[in-house]
Specification:
Layout: E1 6-12, H1 18-26, E2 32-38, H2 44-51, E3 57-60, H3 67-75, E4 82-85, E5 91-92, H4 96-106, E6 113-117, E7 120-123, E8 130-132, H5 143-148, E9 166-168, H6 169-174, H7 185-195, E10 199-203, E11 209-212, H8 225-235, H9 242-258, H10 262-274, H11 279-286
Parallel strand pairs: 1-2, 1-4, 2-3, 6-10, 7-11
Antiparallel strand pairs: 4-9, 5-11, 6-9, 7-8
Helix pairs in contact: 8-9, 9-10, 9-11
Length: 291
């Protein structure tokens, strides 16, 4: 496993933080290649200036294809045994890749291909980083249901995010990133990987990933009620789980309140009640009225 060749894919629009991401990836593994996928071609001059002394490949998209398709493009740039993904505002500690490959090697497997996601240190502005998740996914648990769970006001009970994902090359080829998704791309991709009959999805406790919340230009901070509702409808609405209600309250109701969109507030509130959201997500959403 230590000799496996790893392709590291970092999509970006050219944010300055990409240098930190690339630097953290450079010393990960003895056999690796880093590809930075620029989804804003006009920013090529500044990207070249920022990365001029670092050993990376830079690939251009036509522009505006989004993070998921940028990752697909980067993943096809060069053959490899494994592919690791890193957002341009996150960074890894040394030993992260080795740890994830070891987790793949140690995992119980009933399917031929591998995918793993892991733990992280979650950074909020002005606060001490928080180790997440506090609870790992149960064996056989639906990863979408796991990711949506929010039983406490305190963040971090569960966690599933792009910069903790490593997959085998064949797993990617069998199940590329969902390029049609505007939101929740990482949760949807993990769910598709888990659903695939040839792919074994596991979770590791490797915590050498630093995830920064709310960096300028972050897609995760861009509210899109319609896109989130579509994902909920497809992935969670029919599960019969309280996590379905948690997602409605934490994402849909909170977004509607933040924008003061009263018809959507009413619709989201009714859905949260119908799907029996835990109390904490409702409190989180209602707090938006105080902002």
């Amino acid at each position: 496993m230590s000799k496996a060749f790893v392709l590291i894919v970092i999509p970006t629009t050219g944010r300055a933080s990409v240098r930190r991401a690339v630097t953290s990836a450079l010393n990960q593994h003895s056999s690796q290649r880093i590809v930075v996928v620029l989804d804003a071609p006009d920013n090529m001059p500044s990207l070249l200036e920022g990365l001029h002394d670092l050993e990376v490949d830079i690939v251009l998209t036509p522009g505006g294809v989004g993070g998921a398709e940028a990752r697909n493009i980067g993943s096809r740039h060069q053959d490899s045994d494994y592919i690791a993904y890193l957002d341009d505002d996150d960074w890894w500690e040394q030993g992260y890749i080795a740890g994830q490959l070891a987790a793949i090697s140690a995992a119980k497997r009933s399917r031929p291909e591998n995918a793993v996601f892991g733990s992280a240190l979650f950074h909020r502005a002005g606060n001490t980083p928080v180790a997440v998740p506090r609870v790992l996914m149960r064996e056989g648990e639906d990863v979408a249901v796991y990711a949506a769970r929010r039983r406490r006001v305190r963040f971090g009970e569960t966690f599933a995010q792009t910069s903790t994902i490593v997959v085998s090359r064949s797993a990617f080829e069998l199940c590329p990133w969902p390029a049609d998704m505007r939101k929740h791309q990482d949760w949807e991709w993990l769910a598709r990987l888990q659903d695939h009959s040839q792919i074994e999805l596991t979770q590791s406790a490797i915590g050498r990933v630093h995830v920064e919340q709310g960096a300028p230009g972050s897609v995760s901070k861009t509210a899109d009620w319609d896109a989130s509702y579509s994902w909920w409808k497809r992935r969670l609405s029919s599960t019969g789980s309280r996590e379905s209600g948690d997602f409605v309250a934490t994402i849909l109701l909170r977004t509607a309140i933040r924008r003061r969109q009263w018809p959507l507030i009413a619709k989201s509130a009714l859905l949260a009640i119908r799907h029996k959201s835990h109390a904490a997500p409702v409190l989180i959403a209602l707090a938006e009225f105080l902002r």
